[in-house]
């Protein structure tokens, strides 16, 4: 009888263990902090300053100068900036606290506290603080109940601020991930300098105006390492997130209605008729609003156009671009929406499609003002609507 019980317990244990996912990076964005890359950023900063002062414009730039601006992005503060000033998943929230089982004591001007693993800065890092390679040491991220839901975990493995620091210190090979202390997955990390993207199930509760769920946690535990050339210390420069529940336009954005009138986006109601474009004929038709979204953001980007037109939105919202198709400032995030699997990157100089022609993008400005934003998340037909005269995508999450 005892043997039967023990066998049953063993089978349950093995079944539970087998259910822990083995995840591998779906994408790795290489990082370059070489002297050459730093020199390019100096050139970028100079060009942006001259454009801001009106000394030069986009059309007067050489192809090399345009390539430099396109490569490094005008919304990033400097070479170490991970998210940039434009709106991202973090517009709607993020972890409220990061703690660790241990951390290495400060050395000179460098500290290695847990918060470094989520300061959105490539230069700083968390270093575990025990003897050996830190197997079993961990980070815990705590989220508010209404933080935006997570669909991607991004890990910057090792001490990436320089190639020497990266080689000398140990890096994580396997990172065990827990949700509220329950094992969820093993993240199998590559041994390279880059941002490693892991696709996960939709995690969290999402935005709500009333508290309905408790705060929750993600724990990352070191299971195996790539040994450093000089030090045992295992380093993680950053673990950050991307996900859903973050999109929209600001209050006052004008939506073209089915009767050709304009209405503020915040005043739309389910059942209203708006203008969309028939994907087969390319003609203007009417569509019924089936779903609307409202989210609080504290960072947005404002697109400014040659005609004087402006529109303020989140980085992931797709716009129709002439000779380019759908594009946004955050293509990887835009691809979570139905019908937007192929999304390009918006650049200054792009020609945006309007209902009656085109308009050229001349500037992108970031805003830190916290405000409520709105969007249409489903129509009965069509995948776009008209906002401030521009063709913009309807963001319906896949699976809905």
Describe it.
The protein has helices at residues 2-18, 35-52, 63-72, 163-168, 331-334, and strands at residues 21-23, 27-30, 95-100, 126-127, 138-143, 150-157, 171-179, 182-188, 194-203, 216-226, 235-243, 249-250, 254-256, 262-264, 273-277, 284-297, 300-305, 310-313, 319-321, 325-328, 344-345, 351-354, 357-367, 371-379, 384-387, 390-393. By secondary structure, it is mainly beta. Strand 13 (254-256) and strand 14 (262-264) form a beta hairpin. The protein is globular and about 70 Å long. 38% of the residues are buried. Residues 1-18 have low confidence and may be disordered.
Which runs of at least 5 residues are low in confidence (pLDDT < 50)?
A: 1-18
Number of helices: 5
- Which overall shape is indicated by the principal axes computed on the Cα atoms? globular
The end-to-end span amounts to: 49 Å
How would a crystallographer describe the biggest sheet?
Answer: 6 strands, mixed
The fraction of residues in strands falls at 35-45%
Name the structural class: mainly beta
Mean pLDDT: 86
List the strand order in the largest sheet. Answer: 1-8-7-10-5-3
Number of strand elements? 26
- Alpha-carbon Rg, integer: 24 Å
Helix content: 10-25%
């Amino acid at each position: 009888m005892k043997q039967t019980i023990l066998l049953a317990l063993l089978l349950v244990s093995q079944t539970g263990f087998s259910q822990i996912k083995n995840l591998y990076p779906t994408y790795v964005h290489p990082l370059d902090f070489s002297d050459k890359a730093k020199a390019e950023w100096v050139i970028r900063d100079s060009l942006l300053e001259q454009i801001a002062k009106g000394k030069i414009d986009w059309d007067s730039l050489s192809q090399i100068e345009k390539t430099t601006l396109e490569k490094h992005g005008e919304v990033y503060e400097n070479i170490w900036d991970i998210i940039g000033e434009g709106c991202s998943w973090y517009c709607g929230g993020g972890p409220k606290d990061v703690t660790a089982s241990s951390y290495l004591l400060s050395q000179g001007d460098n500290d290695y506290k847990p918060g470094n693993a989520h300061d959105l800065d490539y230069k700083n890092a968390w270093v575990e603080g025990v003897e050996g390679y830190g197997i079993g040491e961990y980070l815990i991220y705590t989220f508010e109940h209404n933080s935006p839901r997570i669909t991607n975990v991004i890990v910057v493995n090792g001490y990436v601020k320089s190639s020497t620091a990266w080689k000398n210190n140990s890096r994580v090979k396997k990172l065990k991930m827990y949700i509220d202390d329950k094992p969820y997955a093993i993240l199998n990390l590559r041994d390279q300098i880059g941002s490693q993207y892991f696709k996960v199930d939709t995690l969290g509760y999402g935005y709500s105006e009333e508290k309905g769920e408790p705060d929750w946690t993600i724990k990352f535990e070191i299971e195996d390492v790539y040994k450093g050339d000089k030090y045992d210390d295992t380093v993680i420069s950053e673990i950050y997130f991307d996900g859903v529940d973050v999109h929209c336009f600001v209050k006052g954005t004008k939506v073209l209605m089915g009767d050709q009138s304009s209405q503020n986006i915040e005043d739309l109601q389910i059942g209203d008729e708006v203008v969309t474009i028939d994907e087969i004929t390319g003609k203007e038709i009417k569509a019924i609003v089936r779903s609307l979204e409202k989210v609080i953001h504290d960072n947005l980007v404002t697109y400014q156009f040659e005609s004087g037109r402006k529109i303020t939105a989140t980085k992931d919202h797709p716009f129709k671009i002439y000779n380019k198709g759908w594009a946004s400032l955050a293509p990887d995030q835009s691809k979570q929406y139905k019908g937007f699997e192929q999304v390009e990157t918006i650049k200054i100089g792009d020609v945006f499609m309007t209902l009656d022609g085109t308009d050229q993008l001349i500037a992108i400005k970031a805003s830190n003002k916290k405000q409520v934003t709105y969007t249409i998340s489903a129509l009965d037909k069509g995948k776009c609507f008209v906002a401030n005269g521009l063709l913009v995508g309807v963001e319906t999450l896949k699976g809905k």
